Amino acid sequence: MKEFWQKILKDKFAKIALIILASLYLLIIFADFIAPYGKYYSNRDASYAPPSTIYTIDEKGKISWPYTYNYEREYEPALMQTIFKEDRSEKHYLKFFAKGECYKLLGIIPSDRHLIGTDANGQLYLLGTDINGRDVFSRLLFGGRISMTVGFLSLFIVFPIGLLYGG
User: Fold this and answer.
1) What is the pTM of this model?
2) CA–CA separation, 74 vs 39, rounded Å?
3) For residue range 133-159, what is the model confidence (pLDDT) as tens digits?
4) What gap in Å lies between CA 140 and CA 31, rounded to an integer?
5) Separation CA 23–CA 95 (nearest Å)
6) Measuring CA to CA, which of 2, 60, 63, 144 is 20 to 30 A from 153?
7) Buried residues in 122-159 as b, exposed as e (16+ CB within 10 A)
8) CB-side exposure of 71: number of CA atoms within 13 Å?
9) Measured in whole angstroms, how far is the alpha carbon of residue 81 from the centre of its chain?
10) How many other CB atoms are found less than 10 A from the CB of residue 64?
11) Can you give the chain as a three-state secondary structure string?
12) Residue 68 pLDDT
């Protein structure tokens, strides 16, 4: 086993692949904490909303704590489609360890803190929303759980078949 790890760590591409794979598994394990919204969150008024723009420079040109604006949904008759405009009446500052939906970390520890979020009435869509108003970034993390788990479990099926066939 020691030789195996030495060979992996000597090979540059194998080392990079191992780091990426470990990072992806860490992201999906802690998806409840990292994602700004839970897996069942839906805001139908924000259907197809674009990604939230995060500002770090205020109107006076000074560096500010990162903030975003909520979107207002409007129907444009000339284009015959719904468009989103930023509601610049209120800034929503980003917070680390923001309070949000309740979940169980690792399926055991109850919590309501998320890595990043906004105040109570602010909305943060890092990759926009889908047709049902669900945050695409959050859905990507929760969907990755299923995909990465199926990929890992398929090794338990393929490995014995390969051993039998190769033997």
Assistant:
1) 0.82
2) 27
3) 899 999 999 999 889 889 889 988 998
4) 9
5) 23
6) 2
7) bbbbeeebeeebbbbbbbebbeebeebeeeeeeeeeee
8) 25
9) 28
10) 14
11) CHHHHHHHHHCHHHHHHHHHHHHHHHHHHCHHHHCCCCCCCCCHHHCCCCCCCCEEECCCCCEEEEEEEEEEEEEECCCCEEEEEEEEEEEEECEEEEEEEEEEECCCEEEEEEEEECCCCCCCCCCCECCCCCEHHHHHHHHHHHHHHHHHHHHHHHHHHHHHHHC
12) 93
Q: Is the pLDDT of residue 1 over 80?
A: no
Chain center to CA of 82: 25
Two tokens, residue 117 = 């979020």
How far is residue 12 CA from its own chain's centroid? 28
